[in-house]
């Protein structure tokens, strides 16, 4: 399994001090968090894409390219690439270039986004969100796999004899996760192409997550990509830790109560009961995370949200130390126990390249 973190890049006042970081400070903090993630042995750093305050990561490939130059091992991903409001030609070019610069340490998670006003800003209609996602990815998929593309659709100008440059590294496109919270159509899309499905379950109860993943697994098998248990699944999660669980709850409560995404809503206690949010000791985080397999099956990627709601950088780095030193090593060991041999590992550029070479050899 791969373990990592994702950020939404919110610029939020610290409710305990009243101070709001500048955009510059927040962007630099995100880079520091990515570097720390590699230092403590995590596998993945992922950033969201937003084009509205209070969020700052409007250009994920710019940030990930900068991080790629300063890291050696960690996989660089997005926790949302907006397939609806971003041109698929530009996505194809940007991520292929990033893939080259990062020596293959790149994948991406496609999503429709959850901010309605973004659509008209980029000339689109939110009522066409699902058709846009389906059509745009159909084009992106071809751009990375065909050297010359002729294409015509509903939402952009046609292409005639078009070649996207640069071509994917080693002829292997970046691996794609289709991210969704509530749309079965996106689970269907992921299954159709044999891509990964990432259920960002941070706001939803386990029974909803279970239904979405089961739909994806069943349809993955239906399209002939393998058995349901061989489908590639990722999950989100949220944690806040202190060695004394009461200290964790006391420290995190003001941040939770004022968070831009769920503040002033359900209580911290209700939210932790109903969603994957875990606030407590490292051992409690381990125990809670291990239960995800009960409804998601054996899955491939677990990402945690840790730097939101105005938490100061110092606190986030402390959280990453605990995650990397005390939590993830135990999770790796425990998730490996009883894992069937036929369940695939999370795809990487190396594994996808090896599979391509084997296919070419067999075909030859």
From TrEMBL:
GO molecular function: monooxygenase activity; oxidoreductase activity, acting on paired donors, with incorporation or reduction of molecular oxygen
GO (cellular component) term, any one: cytosol
Region annotated Disordered, chain positions: 339-364
Family matches, as SUPFAM superfamilies: Bacterial luciferase-like (SSF51679)
Domain called Luciferase-like: residue spans: 1-295
Stored Pfam families: Bac_luciferase
Keywords: Monooxygenase, Oxidoreductase
UniProt xrefs under InterPro entries: Bact_Lucif_Oxidored (IPR050766), LLM_FMN-dep_put (IPR023934), Luciferase-like_dom (IPR011251), Luciferase-like_sf (IPR036661)
Coiled coil (UniProt feature): none
Matching NCBIfam families: LLM_CE1758_fam (TIGR04036)
Name used for this protein in its record: Oxidoreductase
Lineage, top ranks: Bacteria, Bacillati, Actinomycetota, Actinomycetes, Kitasatosporales
């Amino acid at each position: 399994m791969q373990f990592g973190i994702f950020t939404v890049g919110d610029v939020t006042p610290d409710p305990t001090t009243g101070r709001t970081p500048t955009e510059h400070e927040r962007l630099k903090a995100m880079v520091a968090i990515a570097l720390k993630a590699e230092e403590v042995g995590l596998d993945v750093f992922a950033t969201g894409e937003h084009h509205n305050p209070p969020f700052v990561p409007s250009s994920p490939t710019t940030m990930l390219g900068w991080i790629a130059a300063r890291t050696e091992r960690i996989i660089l991903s997005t926790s949302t690439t907006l397939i609806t409001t971003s041109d698929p030609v530009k996505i194809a070019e940007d991520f292929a270039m990033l893939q080259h610069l990062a020596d293959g340490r790149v994948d991406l998670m496609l999503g429709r986004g959850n901010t309605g006003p973004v659509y008209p800003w980029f000339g689109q209609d939110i009522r066409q969100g699902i058709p846009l996602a389906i059509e745009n990815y159909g084009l992106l998929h071809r751009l990375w796999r065909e050297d010359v593309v002729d294409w015509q659709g509903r939402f952009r100008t046609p292409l005639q004899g078009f070649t996207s440059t640069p071509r994917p590294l080693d002829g292997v496109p970046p691996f794609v996760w289709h991210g969704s919270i509530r749309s079965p159509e996106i689970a269907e899309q992921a299954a159709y192409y044999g891509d990964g499905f990432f259920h960002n379950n941070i706001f939803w109860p386990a029974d909803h997550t279970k239904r979405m993943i089961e739909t994806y697994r069943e349809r993955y098998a239906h399209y002939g990509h393998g058995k349901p248990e061989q489908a590639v699944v990722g999950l989100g999660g949220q944690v806040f830790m202190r060695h004394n669980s009461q200290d964790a709850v006391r420290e995190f409560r003001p941040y939770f109560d004022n968070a831009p995404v769920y503040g002033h809503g359900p209580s911290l206690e209700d939210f932790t009961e109903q969603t994957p949010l875990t606030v407590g000791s490292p051992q409690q985080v381990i125990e809670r995370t291990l239960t995800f397999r009960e409804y998601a099956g054996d899955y491939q990627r677990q990402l945690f949200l840790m730097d939101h709601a105005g938490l100061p950088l110092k606190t986030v780095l402390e959280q990453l130390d605990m995650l990397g030193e005390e939590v993830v090593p135990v999770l790796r060991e425990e998730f490996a126990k009883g894992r069937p041999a036929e369940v695939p590992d999370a795809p990487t550029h190396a594994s996808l390249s090896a599979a391509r070479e084997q296919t070419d050899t067999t075909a030859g």
